[in-house]
Structure formats: C-alpha cells, structure tokens
C-alpha cells in the first residue's frame, strides 16, 4: 500500500517504433487524446500563455527537451527523507508536467510530447517520493512530513500559481489541507486532483473510496476513462467525481529525455489541469467555481441523466470548455441557500449535490454545492500502478530536430 499519494512505477517493455505517425511515434501516440479533447480547435483560442501551473508531485526534470524553458523548480517539501546526496527520481512529476505543458521539440515543436497548454509555465513543487526512492519509508512514517501537501498548496499560491495540479491521492483528510484549499480558492487558484485508482474497492457496495485532496469541496475531482470513454475499471467512482478525462495508454515524458505510456487518474488529472490553464490564460480573472462550471458544461459523452459517479458530468473537451468560459466571463458567482457553504467543509453526510449554475439578470451566477467530500479513515490510497514504456530519445534524429 502506498502512502501520501506516491505513485507506483513498474517498468514494462522498451518502446520500439519505426517511422513516426505524426512527425514521430511519440506524437502519433498522442493522437487519440488530442482528438478526444478537441485540442487542435482549442489552440486557436488559447495555448496557456502567461499561466503558471504548479505541479505538486515528485519533482519535474526541467531539462527534458519537451519541457526545457518552461519549468521553474520550486521548493522540495520532502527534503531530508532521502539520504544525503540522493537525487530525486522525478518520474511521475515529469510525466504529469509534460501532459500539462509539454511543448515538443524539433522544427516547429513537431516531435515529442505536446501538452494541453503548451505555452503555459510549470512550477515544480515536490511533495511526494516515489516508492523506489530510498527515503520512501521515512517519508511515509515521519510526522514532520505529515502536512507537506498543505504546505505545497500554500507555497504554490504564494508563488503565483494560477492552477494547481495534484495527481496524488490519499484517504485521510487533514485540517491543514482543508485550510490550504480554502486559502487557494480565496486567491482565485483552480485546484485539480485525482479521484484515485481504487475503483475495484467498494464501500458498502455503493461507491469506491473517497480520495483527498480530490474530495474536498472546491477541488475539481477527475476520474479516468478508457479508450471507449467509459469509466476505467481502476478509476474511483463516488459523488466527488466532477469530470473525467482519458486515462489509459497516455503518452508522456520522463526524466532524461525518456517517454512513457501509462494509465491512471493521475494522467486524466493532468489533462484537465491543462484545460483549466487554457481557460485561465484566456480569462485570467475567472474564479475557480466558474472554471469548474466551464469544464462541466463543455463536457461530452455525458452519462444518462447528465451525471453519474463514474465520469461525473462527462469527458472534458477543451474547445467546448473555452466556449462555455466565454459565456461565463461576464458573470460572478454568489452563494446560495439559507447559509453559504464553506467551500472547504463537506455537507452533512459527507456529500454534496452536483454543481448547478443559475444565470441571473444582474450577471451573477449562483453556484450550488460544488464537489462531494467524505472523511474516510484508513491507509493512504495508491495512485495505482503506472505502466511505463520507456525509451531513450533516439540519437538518430537529425541535428535540426534536436
């Protein structure tokens, strides 16, 4: 069992490839995601320029040629867990950062990984260790590392992040995390987190475990879909799930100019964070609830009835989300009901209703109950095994492609 949201990593087979499908085999492998998210259309409106996405993860390799120049290495909140002189692995974090803001390389950036928001910047904030790192056990047992995620959220906000990606998951919520999320939302920062990869675990037969920080109200909780855009079997299903994104066979970058293909709600979360970055770049003053509304209103492959616990309001679509954001850009949200709900407190019973937005003549939007939450107690949940197909970038690329 993994703790504090650390991702398990298993090396599979060498990525072999002949002639590229689009410019190279890596970009060709991204074609299904680019099509599903309607990125080609979305990029006519926004590519994320001017936006900073904080990646709270295991660290990001700033020298990968698909990310070079776009990454600022921030604070390492795991410092002291690994023995002195041990470099961080940065596997999972680099992978997520590339899905968000990879810009490719070569002539016109046509080789390598293209992220959802290729002109966005990444702030790397290290808040987890991966299970192969020697300090993994120390990190997950020492009390001094208990609140690293909360600290990372506050740090990212203070460093100017517009979006915070948290492809991490655990079952136990803390007061410090709750307060940090409240702080981020109050500063207009969009928080996106993984719903978790325990979809085969049922609680009373009714739902899969809640995961934090995804299940905190105000956080965009993301589930994963398979190739047919159905809920992936590993993806948690419960009333915290707001939207879903592709999470199977997702191409991404790894440290040292490597490339991976894997599965998980981690990858789905990074893709949604990229779309949030596109929205914030076009409409920088848009508040987190309205960004969430744009994501849900623009979703496709909606379940019967408009919502279910597996894929939320449906599969995100970048072009449609930007279109919905344009409609919402002139509005502000107001609290509803007899008592305004604290965005960092769960409703009675640990659940809330799906988002409902009412547009009023005074250009205000009333947002009812954002995202479900449940205080689950137990061991931290795994993000699930990421299957990695690794290969070094072929040196056969011509010099002009480098």
UniProtKB/TrEMBL annotation:
| Family stated for the protein in its record | Belongs to the peptidase S8 family.
Enumerate the transmembrane spans: 367-390
Stored PANTHER family: CEREVISIN-RELATED, PEPTIDASE S8
* Cleaved signal peptide residues: 1-23
Could you identify this protein by its name? Type VII secretion-associated serine protease mycosin
**Active-site residue numbers:** 57 (charge relay system), 92 (charge relay system), 266 (charge relay system)
Gene Ontology terms describing biological process: proteolysis
The molecular function GO annotations come to: serine-type endopeptidase activity
Domain of life assignment: Bacteria
Where in this chain does the record put each Peptidase S8/S53 domain? 48-314
Q: Which UniProt keywords apply?
A: Hydrolase, Membrane, Protease, Serine protease, Signal, Transmembrane, Transmembrane helix
Matching Pfam families, A to Z?
Peptidase_S8
Could you tell me which InterPro entries the record lists for this protein? Answer: Peptidase_S8/S53_dom, Peptidase_S8/S53_dom_sf, Peptidase_S8_Asp-AS, Peptidase_S8_subtilisin-like, Peptidase_S8_subtilisin-rel
């Amino acid at each position: 069992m993994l703790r504090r949201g650390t991702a398990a990593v298993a090396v599979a087979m060498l990525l072999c490839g002949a002639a590229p499908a689009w410019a190279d085999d890596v970009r060709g492998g991204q074609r299904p995601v680019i099509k599903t998210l309607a990125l080609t259309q979305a990029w006519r409106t926004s590519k994320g320029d001017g936006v900073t996405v904080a990646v709270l993860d295991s660290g990001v390799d700033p020298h990968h040629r698909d990310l070079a120049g776009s990454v600022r290495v921030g604070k390492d909140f795991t410092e002291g867990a690994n023995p002195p002189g041990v470099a961080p692995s940065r596997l999972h974090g680099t992978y997520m950062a590339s899905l968000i803001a990879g810009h490719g390389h070569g002539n016109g950036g046509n080789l390598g990984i293209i992220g959802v928001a290729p002109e966005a910047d990444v702030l790397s904030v290290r808040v987890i260790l991966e299970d192969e790192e020697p300090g993994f056990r120390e990190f997950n047992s020492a009390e001094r590392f208990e609140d690293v995620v909360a600290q990372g959220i506050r740090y990212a906000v203070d460093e100017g992040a517009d979006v915070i990606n948290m492809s991490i998951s655990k079952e136990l919520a803390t007061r410090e995390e709750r307060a940090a999320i409240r702080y981020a939302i109050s500063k207009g920062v969009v928080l996106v987190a993984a719903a978790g990869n325990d979809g085969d675990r049922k609680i009373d037969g009714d739902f899969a475990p809640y995961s934090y920080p995804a299940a905190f109200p105000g956080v965009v909780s993301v589930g994963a879909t398979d190739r047919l855009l159905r809920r992936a079997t590993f993806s948690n299903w419960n009333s915290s799930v707001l939207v879903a994104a592709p999470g199977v066979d997702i191409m991404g970058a790894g440290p040292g100019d490597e490339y991976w293909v894997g599965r998980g709600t981690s990858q789905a979360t990074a893709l949604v964070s990229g779309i949030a970055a596109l929205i914030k770049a076009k409409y920088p003053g848009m508040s987190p609830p309205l960004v969430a509304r744009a994501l849900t209103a623009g979703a496709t492959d909606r379940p019967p009835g408009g919502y279910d616990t597996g894929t939320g309001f449906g599969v995100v679509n970048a072009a449609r989300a930007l279109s919905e954001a344009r409609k919402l850009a002139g509005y502000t949200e107001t609290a509803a009901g007899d008592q305004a709900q604290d965005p960092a407190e769960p409703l009675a019973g640990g659940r809330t209703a799906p988002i409902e937005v009412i547009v009023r003549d005074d250009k205000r939007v009333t947002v009812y109950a954002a995202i479900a939450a449940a205080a689950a107690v137990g061991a931290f949940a795994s993000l699930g095994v990421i299957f990695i197909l690794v290969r070094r970038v072929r040196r056969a690329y011509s010099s002009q492609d480098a």
